[in-house]
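Support request, please re-run this one:
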Amino acid sequence: MRMSTDSERDEALAHATIAAAVDSGITVFDTAHAYGRDGTELGHNERLLTSALRASGAHTRARIVTKGGMTRPAGAWIPDGRGKSILADCEASREALDGLPIDLYLLHAPDPRTPWRTSVRALARLLDERLVRHVGVSNVNRPQLEEALELAPITAVEVALGPLDDRPLRAGLVERCADLGIAVIAHSPLGGPRRARSLARREPLADVARTCAATPAEVALAWLLDLAPVVIPIPGARRPDTARSAARAATLELATEVREDLRHRLGSSRPLAGVRRSDGEVVLIMGVAGAGKSRATEEYVARGYVRLNRDERGGALRDLAHALDDELSRGARRVVLDNTYLTRASRSYVIETASRHGITTRRLWLDTPLADAQVNLVERLLDEFDALPTPEELRRLARNRSGLLAPTSQMRTVRELEPPSADEGFTHVERIKFTRAASRGRARPGVFIAAAALAREGWEQAIAKGNPEAPHLLFHWSPDGTLEALDDAVADLERCTAGPVERALCPHPAGPPICWCRPPLPGLPLAFARAHDLDPARSVLIGTGPAHRNLAAALGAHYLPV
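Re-run finished. Output below.
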């Protein structure tokens, strides 16, 4: 990649490096249509590779892996998983490779703006049209792989994998690929240019390197090759000597005890099981932000469980595994951890730590719909601040408080969620559907009215069906708007109601929401309900479409359409 993306690239050196790789017996070459300095150089690396392979005479036996579905505006990396883009990228790659066949075509990365199934179906179409020999996916998690397998004959997965990147191991991705006979292509196996030097300081690698007359990098590559039947490291050599070093790693013979030691200290494609006792348990309570984990945890704390929570302790999620190790070492036998734990990789640290102490791990998954989780998160903000934070305040809070998120960050946790399963090492996985508890001490009803409803015929009848004596909120979203713009609508409402009428406006810009006050998010109705001691579940919401209907359902309010 960096043969083409570096600002000070050297094409003569690149040709010499590829020639050294060919002379050393390397036959698999990884490239991508996006490998260039920016969007004006798409296909640069593919053309460079083609030229070097032809010059070395290896073009007839080389196996070329390339990727599509990535754009490079102004040098950025932006996935584009639309079907037409993937097809166009593949055609462009075929042209850049000048007749050299594409042995494996990979989708560069999932595009969060395009349904995953759409992108994978486009890969299958490339096979149907005989444009490539095989297809695969890159930079995916295990659930994405499982979904892709339903739609296309995936033969390879490319992910960051190495001593400094063990997430695919902890996520069970390598194990799943080994079971299915899918090749795992390990990109950045040495950690990339900035981190590769640190390998020499990793004791497991340095110790073996001294006894085998090899470099730590070569030992790292040998460990990768030993992980599963088909693991292919692609170290991204930029000099002839590093290409030759990568080839030597494939011939490095490690004694059985050395290989087992490396697997134990660096990781294995199979989880290492410990001896389990029956005198304790670790309970892992997981869910998206706002799922209701704190409430579920209180029951365990009341029963004597030690609670470990990142909101209280700070630090990274992985640090809680060290805290768990300390608690179990001091004799604790019942511990509850309540955090998001969205991925198999993040959960693996807890399971691994408990297993070392002979303690089983049980999983409680709070399966809370996003709309309910949004209500919970806003209620938490109102509990703490008595008002909705501004976007600037939200950004500042999110830097220091893991549970206080902007809407887009919470939505991202929903996308990243990997449902738990027993094969991760849990003794039991319990899925709990969310149910909202009744509001304590709040019994008064209210009426929430979307300003758009007042522009439609029949809004007066909807108001009459509500509760004319209750407090009324008129809410609206108008970027850069002012409350005064709602004065006429408020006057119309006051003529139809006996209760007080208030107005609330979200003035923030369009695009992904940066605040909790933008309808149909629940911030404005919940803040109004809090200020007037109202119970949203006893209230009425008057709106104009599905978004308002969903908001009413999340609040528990009765919905009246106009």
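The mean pLDDT is 92. The first helix runs from residue 2 to 5.
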